[in-house]
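pasting for the record
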Amino acid sequence: MNFLPTENRTYKVFIDFDCTITRKDVGEHMFLRFGDAQEAQNIIKRWINKEIPSTESWVLLCATIKNFDESMFKEFMNQIEIDPDLIEFIEYCERNKIDTYVLSDGLDYYINYILKKFGLERLTVYSNKLTFDENNNLIPIFPYTDEECKVCANCKRNHIINNSSDDDYSIYIGDGYSDTCPAQYVDYIFAKNSLLKFCEKERISYFPFTTFNDVTMRLEQMRNKKRLRKRQQAFLKRKAIYQQG
């Protein structure tokens, strides 16, 4: 295997939003608070159990919210906290010319608002979209679905494939169910919660993390290593996708 000199490496970082950037699942709490909580819990459970695809779960969840009050929802979003070390991590990536992308199976309505609140609206975001009809009902739109995969509404794997190459050193940072697929296509994984358990179960190598400070320190170590080995399984999975065309 060939190893690039440290100064010639290009890194691409892909970050989940809910419970990774934020400290709680904004999408889930949105429907538990403003929709029918019991019905929302049942819908989320059915999605996690793979009884319904993500697109259907979002449509059903949005239907649980009646008489949407934008001012109350903004008040809710203003209470959302992010990882205390995220901003420093983003600034570290920018100083070192490391491209970062936010990949979320959530809704742009709250993602964009929260990122802007913390001065991070410059980040590239791929997510589902939220619109409203003439009666102010919530209508989700899914611009990034994959015809061959019905699990996630926003195919994070495709964004990784489209925004990186085998010459890059790709990194995924996540915590949950929607991260289990895309994480398999990157060279290095930072995981916690459900993603960590998935990696352990599937014997996929990963770095555990609690806050983005852990990621920053580990990434700095990686960048200074003379030899940095990529995951062969990720290379083979990406190759299979490239061959599909």
